[in-house]
Amino acid sequence: MSTRIPAPAALLFCLSVVSHFSVRAQTDSFRLALTLPVQASFATTDNLGFIYLVTRQNAIEKYSPDGRLLTRYTNNRLGVAASLDVTNPLKVLVWYADFRTVVFLDRSLTILGELNLSAAGFPEVRAIAAAQDGNLWFYDEIRFHLRKISPEGAELLESQALNQLLDSRLQISCLRDNGNEVLAADTAAGLLWFDIYGQFQKLAPRKNIASFQLEQDRLIYPEGGFLHIERLQAPVARTLPLPTPAGTGTAPFWTAPRRIFIQNGEALEVWLWDGL
């Protein structure tokens, strides 16, 4: 069922400088777009506005932008589906972390194939990401390399040995590829930048970021009850208070390009926000 909230007649903007960023604060910047009668353990959206989620029953479901259930995929032999990457909606990645297995689905959620990373020689992997060219990024915690492999497991690219460049042992919690760079998050070390060839560029001491999104040149992440949106190539940023109950930490939520998904009791709420 779709619930539309009228946009405010006027929005107030406030411009200030914090550190080296120009920060724009705006009230009432989120609007409730949809409420789905489903309990999710993960939710995201693609660049066309289609919604993908993992239900509490471990099913992968795809919804139209207006909330109609389109198709469903289930696979219980690989354990719990931990996350989805729909960077390429023609090749949806489902990450079954317990079995170190990636399942590839087409746009109708029909299986295209699967890859067991342990069997491919990579037993310690915490986070994966879809590459813009249809391949797969992950961080190899045994050899300390960011790696790019094909869906069949063929090695394509690797970074420098990061244990020789950084002081700490990395525990990468999130990876993203926007076509121009690859970013990785370690809550203790910060954000790591790599080029499109997987070569390490820099470490930004932006700690406590467990998950984030890359939308073109925007870095989007939640922290401390706020959604932070920053331009990668310009000193411009924006901070928005998260809707209740996500902002108070009393409900699970997931960020996605232009959307926040909040599991509010029995319903999954889809909130939209305006761009930077």
Could you describe the 3D structure shown?
- This protein is mainly β.
- The chain has two domains: 1-36 and 229-276, no CATH class; 40-228, Neuraminidase, CATH 2.120.10.
- It is 0% helix and 50% strand.
- It has strands at residues 13-18, 21-26, 30-36, 40-45, 51-55, 59-63, 69-74, 83-85, 92-96, 101-105, 111-116, 125-130, 136-140, 145-149, 155-158, 174-177, 182-186, 190-194, 200-204, 213-215, 218-223, 226-231, 236-241, 253-256, 259-264, 267-273.
- β9 and β10 form a beta hairpin.
Concise summary:
The protein has 276 residues and is mostly beta strands.
What is the beta-strand fraction? over 45%
* Structural class assignment: mainly beta
Helix content: under 10%
The count of strands amounts to 26
Query: Which segments are poorly predicted (pLDDT under 50) over 5 or more consecutive residues?
Result: 1-28
Instruction: Look at the structure and give the mean pLDDT.
Output: 88
**At CATH's second level, what is the architecture of the largest domain?**
6 Propeller
The total of helices stands at 0
Task: Give the distance, in angstroms, between the N- and C-terminal Cα atoms.
Answer: 29 Å
- Over all CA atoms, what is the radius of gyration? 19 Å
Sheet with most strands: 6 strands, mixed
CATH level 4 superfamily of the largest domain:
TolB, C-terminal domain
Under the CATH scheme, which class of the largest domain? Answer: Mainly Beta
Return the string of H and E elements: EEEEEEEEEEEEEEEEEEEEEEEEEE
Number of structural units classed as domains: 2
- Name the strands of the widest sheet in spatial order: 1-2-23-22-21-20
Query: Can you tell me the CATH topology of the largest domain?
Result: Neuraminidase
